[in-house]
Write a structure and sequence with these properties.
By secondary structure, the protein is α+β, with helices and mostly antiparallel strands. The chain has a single domain, classed as 2-Layer Sandwich (60s Ribosomal Protein L30, Chain: A), CATH 3.30.1330.30. The protein has 5 helices and 4 strands; from the N terminus they run αβαβαβαβα. Strands 1-4-2-3 form a 4-stranded mixed β-sheet, with helices on both faces.
């Protein structure tokens, strides 16, 4: 889990991370998002909405084992939805989370 947070931190510093539902949804609509990352304790309604939005644009969605509080600790912002806007970061995150 630390490696996931470390990669998300680097992604944020590079300016390739949209944090929060509204920012992530906007990144999907503008075709900037390459991957949506969800917290483990995200509300079912929010998860359903972001999955629907991402599905329309064929953006993959992965759910991590990190809680919103753990993301807050690592990134400094209390969010449950993250949009990765870089192909390289999204591929590495998929590998880390899904074990591929």
């Amino acid at each position: 889990m630390n490696s996931i947070l470390n990669l998300l931190t680097i992604c944020r510093k590079a300016g390739k991370l949209s944090m929060g539902f509204d920012s992530a949804a906007e990144a999907v609509v503008k075709r900037k998002a390459r991957l949506i990352v969800l917290a483990s304790d995200l509300s079912p309604k929010t998860e359903k909405e972001i999955r629907f939005t991402a599905g329309k644009a064929s953006v993959p969605v992965i759910k991590t084992e990190m809680s919103i509080d753990e993301i807050n600790f690592g990134l400094g912002k209390k969010v449950g939805v993250l949009a990765v806007c870089d192909e390289g970061f999204s591929e590495r995150l998929s590998q880390l989370v899904c074990g591929r």
